[in-house]
Amino acid sequence: MKRLGLFVSSHQKEFAEERQAIRDYINGNPLFRRFFDAFLFEDLPASGQRPDKAYLTEVDRCDVYLCLLGNEYGHEDADGLSPTEREFDRATAGGKERLVFVKGSNDSVRGPKVRALLRRVEDQLIRRRFNSVPELTTEIYSSLVEYLAHTGMLRIRPFDASACTDATLDDISQEKIAEFLSRARRSRGYALDPDTPLRKALAHLNLLDGDQPSNAAVLLFGKQPQRFLITSEVKCLHFHGTEVSKPIPSYQIYKGTVFELVDQSLDFVLSKIACSIGTRAEGPTAPMNYEVPQEAVGEAIINAIAHRDYVSNASVQVMLFSDRLEVWNPGQLPPSLSPEALRAPHPSIPRNPLIAEPLFLTRYIEKAGTGTLDMIEQCSRAGLPPPEFRQDCGQFVQVLWRPERNGTTELKMGDQVGTKWGLSGDQVVVLRACVTEKSVSELMDVVGRTSRTKFRNSVLRPLMQAGFIEMTIPEKPRSSNQKYRITDTGRALLAGRETP
């Protein structure tokens, strides 16, 4: 099949990074490289043809014209027109498919001719805005998939962009979307307010397929994602030895949104590995150091959930052994990547870009292709062997090594606060914070939580049920003056003594 020409038009210097990123993205995406051949003028070999004639010739040859508009208009010819505007006019006259992406939202800082061109564009077609390269590639992904589907070249939409069978907008949680928008605004300056209507928020994130929520929408914000996508659950297992064996000491199957699955799986692992608690000598918060770096554990789990093959009937598995942590997810690496390539700088090629984008907006991921390199560095700093990456039986496997035990794997109390009692890292931090009375809001700030309901269910309530903390006004649980404080049992735990 002859590939379609995709012409990238923009001010070359202003968009040097974006232009290269677009070419690398198209060439690295398993779907798009089958259909498109991206053209950048700077890749054109030297010839005797005038540059203005050469780029207009390429516009004539292309099938899709992709334009980036920013603040700079560019060099003007004898008629006062820039190459970008000439190219736009040529694409318009030739009836080309035109995709226009505008960087930034403040049009007042743009040159007058850029603003005039932008008005012309808005009169003719829908343009999309972006603020970063990851946002741009996500918008390009949605636009090109829509183009391929509209032309009949793509008869099956990608999984994350396809409508979730039998799901309606009633199956999406407005509360979860509001929580996401609040966090995205704080983390990345995302444009939408937390009170944005559900449909508008989904449309802005490209999570609608017609009037239906996409699979990505249900996985990210569904009230019950596993009702529609049952294998999206995560299975977490803890073994005392180095091999899979029964009986399994601890086995949890977690359900919920992508965000909830990441948080629950991370808590499972952190509650079962050693954690040393430092002192407040260097600041108001006591530092916590897990035997396997928390950031590396989180990266492995996020990688598995975000980049898994959701069409597979298998689920993500997180398995903690006495000597290592293994994280398995269905699906292979993209053809352009190998397990060995993950140890060197490499491009970010998400399998599910519409799932990756909200994770990026909330800083769960960075979308820069640095995740595995960060894991290697974090393990090295902790004095651990480098992580292992491999493909096995149609699954991608990440292995993080635990420190060697000198003859015993029994963890003591004291510095490893909470390990014996199955407390998560957040529960240990909250327990220490309750040495002085604190409100729910104050405790949520201590551990960086934003969902009051999840915080109560996963952190506060288990600590109270275990008798480690208590309410200051137990006779009025819903009092606006309610605070929480540590009990004698909790103090004994922190001191490393047997609890009463």
From TrEMBL:
Ranges where the Filamentation induced by cAMP protein Fic-like C-terminal domain occurs: 426-487
Signal peptide: none
Span of domain DUF4062: 7-91
Coiled coil region boundaries: none
This protein's name: DUF4062 domain-containing protein
